[in-house]
Amino acid sequence: xxxxxIFIPLGVTLAQEFGIADPVxxxxxxxxxxxxxxxxxxxxxxxxxxxxxxxxxVRVMLTQGLLILPVHTVxxxxxxxxxxxxxxxxxx
Length: 92
What we know:
The chain is mainly α. The chain has helices at 2-18, 23-32, 45-53, 58-91. Helices cover 76% and strands 0% of the residues. The longest helix has 34 residues, at 58-91.
């Protein structure tokens, strides 16, 4: 989550500066991208417990996470941003 505190303000500022995206919708999309904590054992407490106890190897966690990563990225890009823009238009 620490990386989100860096990337969300950076992304929103760049979107405002260059006018390439709706800053609020982009911020929501970047925030949801923080759900990728399942890639590493240190991402969540349950992952750390499983990896620390030796029930699952880090290599297995990474390979499974890397299989899910492209699907997650496509869904975030193609679904979350347009839906966030629609919700923001509806809220105004």
